[in-house]
Amino acid sequence: MNKPFDAKEPSLGFLLYDAARLMRRDFDRRAKSLGLTRAQWSVLAHLRRNEGSNQASIADHLDVEPITLVRLLDRLEEAGWIERRMDPKDRRARLIYLTEKTHPILARMQELGAETRDVMMAGIPEAAQATMYEHLLRMRANLTSSTKPAEAEEVYPEAENA
User: Fold this and answer.
1) Fewer Cβ atoms within 10 Å of its own Cβ: the N or the C terminal residue of the chain?
2) How far apart, in whole angstroms, are the C-alpha atoms of residue 77 and residue 84?
């Protein structure tokens, strides 16, 4: 059921985009002291859920060009946040793992994400939050390409980056 167009009301797409933008801004402000860029903490948060992924799958999931990801990984590796290991199944590929140094920063990112979520969800009853979450999962599944059916069904724990 589509609402009729009303130029005075923002569209669903705009509201989703704007809420996500403001959520990232709030998290960025909180995470500034961590010394990581948004792109870097996005990689670390992804690896927390998908440690041992190869570079191509990380680039695809984060929707970045492979060369951009390689530069990010170079900086993260130089700083001691990640390590690359040979893929035993493919000598050309590298698998990416978090280092012990990363675990405290991931815990702090999770705390900051919870703070951002608390601000974002203030005044919304828990039942409505659960319903909204279910609907967003369904929207994501509906929009997921049929070439990636497993991704549509994947349910992530609450994201560390809010």
Assistant:
1) N
2) 8
